[in-house]
Amino acid sequence: MKELADSLPEKTTQLQSAWTELAGSLPATISTLEKRLAGLKMPAPGTPNAEQSPMVILAGIKTGWTDAQAAAQAGRLAEAVSKANDVRSSAVKLLTDLQGGS
Fold first, then answer.
1. Given this model, what pLDDT does residue 70 score?
2. CA-to-CA distance for 43 and 55, rounded, in angstroms?
3. Which site from 6, 12, 55, 87 is most exposed, i.e. has the minimal number of CB atoms within 10 Å?
4. DSSP reduced 3-state for 43
5. 3 pLDDT more than 90
6. What's the predicted TM-score (pTM) here?
7. DSSP letter (8 states) at residue 71
8. Which residues contact 93 (CB under 8 A, 6 or more apart)?
């Protein structure tokens, strides 16, 4: 138990550092995606494979980022970093897909 208590300040510092890095980079990444997808519309309800639409994926990314920020503001840094890492992975995949023309 003492080991865990002793490592807590270090873990907190690591989480704060990770959050600072993610919070500094993700808004620009999301902005880049918004610019690249400007002019596209959300698929109509009932459209087959709508979940694969770049606009639907971007909406999920933005929702995930909002959730991550809310977790950080509530002091739940581990949750915030986890959610932000998921957002970053989704954003990188979408950017890669857009660059590949798929």
1. 98
2. 8
3. 6
4. coil
5. no
6. 0.86
7. H
8. none
- Tokens standing for residue 37: 């997808």
pLDDT mean across residues, the chain: 91
Q: Which two tokens stand for residue 40?
A: 């596209």
**Contact between residue 77 and residue 12 where contact means Cβ atoms under 8 Å apart:** yes
pLDDT, one tens digit per residue, over 21-66 is 999 999 999 999 999 999 989 898 888 988 999 999 999 999 999 9
For residue 56 the two structure tokens come to 């639907």
Short-list 55, 61, 52, CA closest to 89: 61
**Domain residue extents for the chain:** 2-34+50-100
Answer whether residue 6 shows pLDDT above 70.
no
Residue written as tokens 């639409």?
A: 53
Please report, as a single letter, which amino acid is at residue 93: K
